[in-house]
Every structure is written in structure tokens, then in C-alpha cells.
Amino acid sequence: MIVLEFKLKGSSQQYRIVDEMIRTAQFVRNKALSYWIDNQAVKLSDLYKQCAIMAKEFEWARKLNSMARQASAERAIFAIQRFFANCKAKKPGKKGYPQFKKYTRSVEYKTSGWKLSTDKRCLTFTDGFAAGTFRLLGSRDLHFYAPTEIKRVRVVRRADGYGAQFCINVERTEEIVPTGKAVGIDVGLNHFYTDSNGEAVPNPRHLRKSEKALKRLQKRVSRKKKGSGNRKKAINQLGRKHLKVSRQRKDFAIKTALCVVK
Fold first, then answer.
1. Are 51 and 32 in contact (CB under 8 A)?
2. 122 to 1, 37, 67, 107, 129: CA distances (angstroms)
3. Hey, how many other C-beta atoms are within 10 angstroms of the C-beta on 198?
4. Which of 46, 57, 161, 166 has the fewest Cβ atoms nearer than 10 Å?
5. 180-194 pLDDT, tens per residue?
6. What does the pLDDT look like over 201-214, one tens digit per residue?
């Protein structure tokens, strides 16, 4: 699968509804994990049944699309399977026992609960939450893919806003023409990499350059009163800075790798 990400543009009321959707998905995931703790050796089908029971027991949980509830239960079973795989492989240290989530930042839909506009520039959520229609902002184009190829839609909350990730089931093939040349690459700390031809790419050290600003923003968070609006604003500013550094490092690594391939 390939993943295309867009930014969701909506109103503040719509964003509050999206937060409720994310909290509901977190509740379903934690309830599924609690059911596994109380009843060992449960399967994914058992957790699917618990999702239907939760929808009948909690009216507000029924607003979330049924497939979105199943996707939240799948997150719990994946954490359980990863724990058992680490135990079977005798991984040293902590094995990653499944924990209850407190700060979930995403909700995932499958093939229902959402609808794309005819121009594929707007996304509408059709489940009980009725979040409405969001504009999709991004440089990618969804016209190349049929609606049946979109298998998942994940809504992600970040420090700089809300985004929608489309998981598309397509096979990408690239024709590789052998050049007959071989280059050895050594990745290090002083240099990002050094090849066998003697060329070296320096490490940009985005994190090191931003440490002073991060320290200042962290101090602002520490000085604010817990639970206050100013503390939330300071936390958001700190999160935006961390997000920028993360994107800088990722973009540099990807663009440098593409230059090496070419």
C-alpha cells in the first residue's frame, strides 16, 4: 500500500467533533484490551463481537462507524500479538506488555463511514458523529486512484492541525536500469554518509541547532499553571517545534537517499 496525506480544513466545531471521534476510538481500544485481560486466549473475532456489545451498551460509542470500532479493536489485538511474538523470540528486557492508551491521536476508518466528493477535494464523514465535510489540502492528487482502491482513511491529530491519511492498495513498479557501477556507503555520526568514492555528505544536525529553542519552549510549559489555557498554548508551541525538527530530519534523509539512488 501507499499512503497519501492531506491536511483537513474545517471549522473549530468540526475539530471538536473529531476529538470526540478519537476519544471514542481510544475507549473502544482500551475496552477491547480490558476484555482480553479478563478473558485470556481471545481472538480477533471475539473482540469484534465486543465492539457490537459496546455499541448497544454505550449510545455515544454507537456514533462511531462499526468498521472504525473494529479497527480500534485491531489495534489492541496487534499489541497483544506483538507482546507474544517478543516473548516467543525471547527478546531481552521488557517484552512490551499491552498498555492502556491515554493520549491517542488518531481514528481509523475502513471502507465505510466516509465519502469523497466528485472532485476528490473534500472528505465527508457519514457516521453518527456527523463531523461534516472537510476540504483536503495537499499537493497529491487522488484522481489517479479508484474509490475501491482506498482501503483505509486515518484521521491524525498533530500539533499543527488535523490530517487525513489515505491507504491505497496499489502495486508500484519502477523500472531499474543497471549501470554496472557499485558504490559503498558508510553511515556515521560526523558525516551523514561517506561513499567509496571519497565523497561525504555532512550531517545537518537539525536537532542540535534547535535545542536552544526547544529548551526555551519547554521552560515556558513548566512555568505555566497546570490545566490553564496558557499551558495548553505553550504545549502546542513546543509540539509544533518538535514536529518541525522531525520533518526536517525526515525530508533530509529521504532527499539525500534519492540523490544517492540517482
1. yes
2. 22, 41, 21, 18, 17
3. 6
4. 57
5. 888 888 888 788 888
6. 888 899 999 999 99
- The CA distance from 61 to 54, in Å, is 7
Residues 6+ apart with CB under 8 A from 75: 29, 108
Predicted TM-score (pTM) of this structure = 0.85
Strands 161-168 vs 150-158: parallel, antiparallel or unpaired: antiparallel
Label residue 95 exposed, middle or buried (CB < 10 Å: 0-12, 13-18, 19+). middle
71-93 tens-digit pLDDT: 999 999 999 999 999 999 988 88
Residue 141 Rama label (left phi>0; alpha psi -120 to 50; beta): beta
Other C-beta atoms closer than 10 Å to the C-beta of 207 total 13
Helix H or strand E encompassing 61: helix 59-62
Return the amino acid letter for 260. Answer: V
DSSP state of 198: S
Res. 258: pLDDT tops 80: no
The number of helices, as runs of H, and strands, as runs of E, in the chain is 6, 10
Q: How far apart are CA 192 and CA 202, in angstroms?
A: 5
